[in-house]
Every structure is written in C-alpha cells, then in structure tokens.
C-alpha cells in the first residue's frame, strides 16, 4: 500500500510542477513594488489561466494529503 502512495505522490508532484510552470508570468514582483507591469496591476483570470490556477490549488492540497497519508499508512 505504501508503494502505491509513493507512486501517487510522484505523479501528483509532477502534475503540480507542470501546472505551476505553465502559468502566465507577465506581472512579476516588479508590479507589486511599483515597477512597470506593462498594463494593469490586476486583471481577472479567464479560461486557461483560471483552470491552471485552480488545478494548481487542488493538486497542492492532494499532494499535501498524500504526503500525510504516507506516514500514516502501514506496509
């Protein structure tokens, strides 16, 4: 059972890293501290951006739960 949890952690971790790296990086930290952001400082996310953000949140929660389950599950 522990091996299955390990495999799930690796798969979910890979999906989490991929969904984070695919997100748009247009604003950056410069906009937070008054730098030029190339436009608005805030805009609503639509379509793929919203999907990637929501999937990153969900995958992060699943990853955390699986990590906790790894220590609870017996061999």
From TrEMBL:
Family of the protein in this entry: Belongs to the SecG family.
Q: Return any one Pfam family short name.
A: SecG
Q: Which residues cross the membrane?
A: 54-73
What is the protein named? Protein-export membrane protein SecG
GO CC list: plasma membrane
Keyword Membrane found: yes
Q: Which GO terms describe its molecular function?
A: protein-transporting ATPase activity
Domain of life according to the entry: Bacteria
Tell me the keywords, alphabetical order. Cell membrane, Membrane, Protein transport, Translocation, Transmembrane, Transmembrane helix, Transport
Q: What is the purpose of this protein?
A: Involved in protein export. Participates in an early event of protein translocation.
> What is the recorded membrane topology of this protein?
Multi-pass membrane protein
Principal location class? membrane
**Record GO biological process:** protein secretion
């Amino acid at each position: 059972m522990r091996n299955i949890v390990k495999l799930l952690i690796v798969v979910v971790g890979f999906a989490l890293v991929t969904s984070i790296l695919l997100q748009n990086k247009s604003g950056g930290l410069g906009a937070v501290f008054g730098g030029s952001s190339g436009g608005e400082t805030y805009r609503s996310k639509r379509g793929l951006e919203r999907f990637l953000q929501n999937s990153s949140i969900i995958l992060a929660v699943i990853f955390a739960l699986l990590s906790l389950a790894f220590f609870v599950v017996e061999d």
